[in-house]
Amino acid sequence: MRILLVDDHPVVRAGLAAMLAAQDGFTVAGEAADGEEAVRQSAYLAPDLVLMDLQMGEGIDGLEATRQIAALPGAPKVVVLTTYDSDADILRALEAGAVGYLLKESPPEELFAALRTAASGETALSPPVASRLAQRFRSPQLALSQREIEILELLAAGRSNREISKAMFISEATVKTHLAHVYDKLGVDSRTAAVRCAVERRLIRL
Asked: Full-prediction pTM beyond 0.85?
């Protein structure tokens, strides 16, 4: 399995490369330090799998890089490897085309197994991530939609209802309706409480 490593920290890339080189069946095809380079290298090297970080300084982030890579002819499979485990990050990565979502705190054996799972065409998730997604399905009435999560993130950024409506191209009345649903699902009655609750439950991150 030929793997492209994408992370803006050279030490992280070096560590991953060393671990993968010590395992049978893995070959590091190349490395990239940012999203743009990841897309270019994916098109040029045609790896089997891309191990993608989410946050990489300037330029496009891992989510946008994943979208662009997934659109390539004969696209490699993308597995996200990150420290972030909020619902918003997980859902966006999977919607962007990632076939796996792993946390950097995962033990090496778990990482290797997940890469093999992803390479076989199955979804690979770290146990904490799988648990979070399962909880959403077990309690659908409490799960926030992607649109509701986006509104919460704008609330956390201090945006007014009018600013949210403009940013999301929806009416202020629709914003208020979404907020009412968010308040009901989270069991809160104010914008401040909604943001605090969402952060505590790791639905969003500040």
From this structure: no
